[in-house]
Write a structure and sequence with these properties.
By secondary structure, the protein is α/β, with parallel strands linked by helices. The protein has helices at about 5-20, 30-45, 90-110, 135-140, 155-165, 195, 235-255, 290-305, 330-340, 355-360, 385-405, and strands at about 20, 25, 50-55, 60-65, 70-80, 115-120, 170-175, 180-190, 200-205, 210-220, 220-225, 260, 265, 275, 275-285, 310-315, 325, 345-350, 365-370. The structure holds (2S)-amino(hydroxy)ethanoic acid (HGY) and manganese (II) ion (3 copies). The site of (2S)-amino(hydroxy)ethanoic acid has 4 residues, from loops. The site of one manganese (II) ion (MN) has 6 residues, from loops. It holds the Pfam family Peptidase_M20.
């Protein structure tokens, strides 16, 4: 069966060309580049004779209807959106790779007995709006989004309705499709394990829980030249010493606890004014919720020690702090098929969040990772070799074949 094809690489390039430049990929949900990406996928699906559906959130579903039990659905897919200045493979590889696996199977074996479904989820990253996994949460009937706005004050619903309207083509259905019997997500590892151990495939046991905070530390804005050093309440100095202390504490709580301050805003952010206020994000992750709880208690008590003025700590309710166990049988089955294909595997937990953590709440779900060169992701340097990308598609193909033919 023809497994390796340059179609995969050229399809990735086609969609990345809409949204890429030297500072990375920007395919934020409902943006023009995101619309182009979903439109391109719809065109490929229609050209391949697939049944195409778009739901109210802009998630695209491409179905090859089963010849015998069309209501039995086996799904694969990932997310179309990227982080800000992101990479070429996070999310998109699972969409285009899933399309490739299904196309290869139909070309080699004809129509499947059960329906094969490719899903391109509208949004997973939470990079434009303060909500994550909105596409898979809508499809899994887990939660819907209301009254949130992006940094420019544009409402989620406004952006959503305008963008989804651009996905309506003749022959494209609208509505919310039924849930599948299983879901498999093909994804880059986004970490160093596979590439360091020279292994080809990662099979995912679980996905970490994430707890994300927004912390605001108030100081006293004042003149940079006339205010004696001993009389200052510099919010940025307070925040930076707190952040350093929290990083050290995180390591003492657990070496597997990740602690990241990715966003930091200084007010008024002017060279000759002592910062009066600092707001920063804290992203913590661990496979045990108790560790996240322990860190949160510490975070709150450490802030009490430094705050000289009112402070605030808010938890992002959209992020899933519950660690997720993925389906063990599907993992074991994929491990057997990987060995049959002569692929080397490693079995481990994912430090990145994925749509699979939502899908696993409603259907048996598993993930297939391929190596990320230097373990880099969420950056323009994100890269995987064509051979590894094709190996992931080959394993996905084997898994889908056994479930639907
Ligand atoms: O942040 C994450 O782990 C995911 O890429 N959204
Ligand atoms: Mn992803
Ligand atoms: Mn990501
Ligand atoms: Mn993710």
């Amino acid at each position: 069966m023809q497994l390796v094809s340059d179609e995969l690489i050229s399809r990735l390039r086609t969609i990345n060309q809409f949204s890429g430049n030297q500072i990375g990929q920007n395919r934020l949900v409902y943006s023009p580049t995101w619309v182009k990406g979903q439109q391109q996928l719809i065109k490929w699906g229609l050209a391949a004779g697939m049944a195409v559906t778009v739901d109210a959130y802009g998630t695209v579903y491409l179905d090859v209807i089963g010849s015998q039990s069309p209501n039995g659905i086996v799904a694969t897919g990932s997310h179309m959106d990227t982080v800000v200045h992101g990479g070429k493979f996070d999310g998109l590889y699972g969409v285009v790779g899933g399309f490739q696996a299904i196309s290869n199977l139909v070309a080699a074996l004809g129509r499947p007995k059960k329906t094969l479904r490719l899903i391109s989820f509208s949004e997973e990253e939470g990079s434009r709006f303060p909500a994550t996994f909105t596409g898979s949460k809508h499809y899994a009937r887990v939660a819907d989004v209301h009254d949130i706005v992006d940094h420019h004050g544009i409402s989620f619903d406004d952006a959503r309705q305008k963008a989804v309207a651009k996905l309506q083509f003749p022959g494209v259905n609208t509505g919310l499709p039924a849930l599948p019997d299983s879901f498999t997500e093909l994804h880059i590892e986004q970490g160093p394990r596979l590439v360091n151990q020279h292994l080809q495939i990662g099979l995912v046991t679980s996905i970490v829980g994430q707890r994300r905070f927004t912390v605001t530390i108030n100081g006293v804005a004042n003149h940079a030249g006339t205010t004696p050093m001993a009389d200052r309440h510099d919010a940025l100095l307070l925040a930076s010493s707190l952040i350093n202390r929290l990083a050290i504490i995180a390591r003492t709580i657990s070496r597997q606890l990740t602690f990241t301050v990715g966003e930091l805003h200084v007010w008024p952010n002017t060279a000759n004014v002592i910062p009066g206020k600092v707001t920063f994000s804290v992203d913590t992750r661990h496979v045990q919720k108790a560790i996240l709880d322990q860190f949160e208690t510490t975070l709150r008590s450490e802030i009490q020690k430094v705050a000289v003025a009112p402070f605030s700590v808010s938890v992002n309710r959209w992020v899933n702090d519950q660690p997720t166990l993925l389906d063990a049988d599907m993992l074991r089955q994929n491990d057997r098929w990987a060995r049959k294909l002569g692929l080397s595997t490693a079995i481990f937990a994912s430090g990145a969040g994925h749509d699979s953590e939502i899908m696993s709440r409603v259907v048996p779900t598993t993930m297939i990772f391929v190596p990320s060169i230097k373990g880099i992701s969420h950056a323009p340097e994100e890269k995987s070799t064509p051979a590894d990308l094709h190996a992931g598609v080959a394993l996905l193909q084997e898994s889908l074949k056994h479930q639907t033919y």
